[in-house]
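Assess this one:
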Amino acid sequence: MRTLFFSVILVCVALPVHAQQTRPIKAKNSYCWSGPQMERFMSFLQAHAPKKPDDLPPLIAGIAPHADYRHAGRVYYPLFQKISSPEVVIFGVTHRAIREKLGQPQDKLILDAYVDWPGPYGNVEVSPLREYLKKHLDPQYYTVNNDAHRMDHSIEGLLPFLQYGRRDVRITPVMVTAMSFDTMDTVSAKLAKVLTGYMKEKHLEPGKDVFFLISADANHYGKEFNNTFFGEGAEAHGKGAGHDRHLVDTYLQGPISIKKLKDLSSQLWGEDFKSYGDVVWCGQYTIPFGLLTVHHLMETWAPEKQLTGKRFLYGDSYSDGVLPADETGLGTASPPSLERWVGFFSAGYYLRNGAPGGQ
C-alpha cells in the first residue's frame, strides 16, 4: 500500500512537468486547432480570398496579422501562399497587458523552453536554432520565459497557416520587448550574426530553407485602447484606416533601409520608445526589429542585393466585418464596431539587384 501511495504521488508531481512540454493553446476560438477545421477554413479562403501574387521573386520574410481568422483570414492568405520554407523564425509581439504582467521588460528578446507548440495537424517542432541562439547570443540580449510565451497569442496565430503549408515546419519563437531604435539596431545586428553562423553551418539559404515571419497588427482604435486621435465615428475610421495604409505604403514597401525603419518607428512611437504616437500598432517593436534583423543578415549574405517589400493586402475589423465562414466553428473576440476596430495587413520581402540602402 505504501509503495502504491508513493507511486501516486510521483505521478501527480510529474503531470504538471509533462503538461509544460507542449506550449498550451491560448486563443482556442480565434484560430484553427484541428486539421478538418483548417481544411474547411482554407477551402473558404480559396474561394473568397485574393490569389497569391505571382509576379514577385521568392520571399525571405513577411509580415502577417495575428487577429482573429474570422476578421483577418483573407489578409493572412496571400502571404502564406508564398511561404514554403521548412524552418521559420517568428518575431512575436509582447502585448501591452503581457508587458505589464512581466514588469515592463525592455531591451531583450524573450525565448521559450517548450519542447513543441500546438498545431492543427499535430505538434509543431521547435527548431534546433533556438538552443543555438541561447548558446551563441550574448545573454544580455535575451531571457527565457515560458510564461511570457504562454500568455501571448501573437505567435500561435500563425502556426495553423504555416503547418497547413508544410506539415513538417519547425519554428523558432522570439518575442520582442520594448527597445529604443539604437538598441534595436545593436541587438538585431548581433542576432543576425548568430543566424548567419547557424545557417552557414547547416548549409541553409534565406527564404528557401529559413523564412523570417513578423507578427503584427496595425492600429487598435477606440476608447478601449485609449486611442481616439482621429475623433469618433465613420469619418474617424476612414482617416485612421487611411493613415495605416499610408504608413505601410510609405515605410514598408519598396527598398528597405535603416533610415526608413527609423522613420517608421518615429511614427509608431510617442515621446519615447515606451509610448505610442498617433496610432496604436501592436507591431511597433516587432516590425522594425524583425526587418532590421533581416536587413543586417542580408548585408552579409547578399551585399549586392536590396531588401525590398510589397504590401499584399490591408483590412480592418470594421470594414471587413466577420467572414461568413460559419461552418468552421471559429469565433471572434469582438463584433465589428466603429467604436472599436483593429487594422491588419500582410506584406512580403524579397531581394532584388541593386545597392543596399543601408542608411
